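re the bet — no i am not wrong, look at it urself. input seq straight from the record:
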Amino acid sequence: MADVLIRRGVAGLPSVSRSEVPGNYPYEAIRVAKLIRAAGLTVEFEDDKPDRTYLTHDAAEFWLPIIEFATDVGKDTLIATLSGLISSYATTKTLRRGESSGEEVTVPSPVLHVEVTRQGDLTTKLVLDGPADSVLEAITRIESWGGSEDERRQLPEG
């Protein structure tokens, strides 16, 4: 059994079916799987490779895959893995606008849609929507892993 299961569907987009085969996954699922593996955890997808469809969106937002952690993945490992994952999206960039003006513009943190569940005696779910730096801050401040099944947190604009 894997440490992490990437489930069908797209965090923050309930219109994308979670029961259809082939399974619909955000294109970001590929990157997320690589980052989680780099953190030393094993990753599986809910569907075999030929049964997956990857969706892309032309937006300044990232819809991450629905991530499910196994019971035996400790809270510290879970939070460290999520923090590392979200940190990879939270980088702010400074761009030069126009050669003549030399004006620098800071690009805001992209908006992320994250849904994480953890199996155990009780299934718990965490859903966060907001700027990457706010999502990272929320994850690093988690002291208890719990809440109702349908709990959703809308983060303030950075």
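see?? Confidence is low (pLDDT under 50) at residues 145-156. told u. also The chain has three helices and ten strands. so pay up
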